[in-house]
Write a structure and sequence with these properties.
Elements (H helix, E strand, L loop, with lengths): L2 E2 H7 L5 H9 L3 E3 L2 E2 L6 E2 L6 E3 L2 E2 L9 E6 L28 E2 L8 E7 L2 H8 L7 E8 L4 H9 L2 E2 L2 E2 L4 E7 L3 E8 L6 H8 L4 E9 L2 E2 L8 E3 L2 H9 L1
Parallel strand pairs: 9-15
Antiparallel strand pairs: 1-4, 2-3, 2-5, 5-6, 7-9, 7-17, 8-9, 10-14, 10-15, 11-12, 13-14, 15-16
Helix pairs in contact: 1-2
């Protein structure tokens, strides 16, 4: 059965589907000996030979790996970083499989980050239409009032467009800072920080504690663990 080339590459663990599209467009994929750059190209895994960097790609050889990492502050989630800052892949170097992050966490944000070589799952979890909840604990400057909480519930304007409705719950009030729980459904660039700036309560510290019902728990900062079969099944059901 034929399937789109980028979907095949993602399921084979080469890269996420979006990254696979970039590889195709850059002319780094060959099908039956010919460079392919059309994103609509379809392949039959049983008949066609697919090469990435002149090495054959096969879904049969891939053992799918699912990792939860407690990302510390001061690490980037991109594969390559022009400023030489440490990356999350350094923290999972013991994993032999070629895994990649599911979405991103900012350099100065800590918390739950999933990594896998299941490109199809990555695509589904990061696609805007799936609305997977992401829960954060944030320390803010000042304390939001009821009007600020209403703004979050309606969605606030950042980068020229309105966010989807979000939730904010105040957990602790202090003289200069407050601690809140924030739940969003999108993954826009630095979204939580920008939303908090929009209501005049900038973020002092930010940590992602859950993706959907999958919780970080007491996993130590900088450490990782493999997801249980039940957790993987849950993510695939989203």
């Amino acid at each position: 059965m034929e399937e789109r080339l980028q979907k095949f590459l993602a399921e084979a663990g080469v890269a996420s589907r979006r990254k696979a599209e970039e590889l195709i467009a850059a002319g780094k994929i060959k099908v039956n000996g010919k460079v392919v750059t059309e994103l609509g190209t379809k392949v039959d895994p049983k008949k066609d030979e697919v090469l990435y960097l002149d090495k054959e790609v096969s879904k049969k050889e891939v053992d799918l790996v699912y990792i939860m990492l407690h990302k510390p502050e001061g690490y980037v989630t991109t594969a390559k970083e022009q400023f030489g800052r440490p990356g999350v892949m350094d923290l999972v170097s013991q994993i032999e499989a070629r895994i990649f992050p599911v979405g991103r966490l900012d350099y100065d944000t800590s918390g739950l980050l999933l990594l896998t070589n299941d490109g199809e799952l990555t695509y589904k979890l990061t696609h805007p239409k799936h609305d997977v909840d992401k829960t954060y604990i944030a320390k803010l400057y000042g304390t939001p009032d009821d009007m600020d909480l209403q703004k979050f519930r309606r969605g606030v304007f950042i980068d020229g467009r309105q966010t989807k409705p979000a939730k904010m719950q105040i957990l602790e009030r202090g003289e200069r800072q407050s601690t809140v729980e924030i739940v969003i459904h999108e993954g826009r660039n630095r979204q939580v920080r920008k939303m908090c700036e929009a209501i005049k309560h900038p973020v002092a510290q930010l940590k992602r504690v859950a993706t959907g019902e999958l919780k970080l728990g007491d996993l130590p900062k900088g450490k990782y663990r493999h997801l249980t079969p039940k957790e993987v099944k849950y993510l695939k059901s989203l």
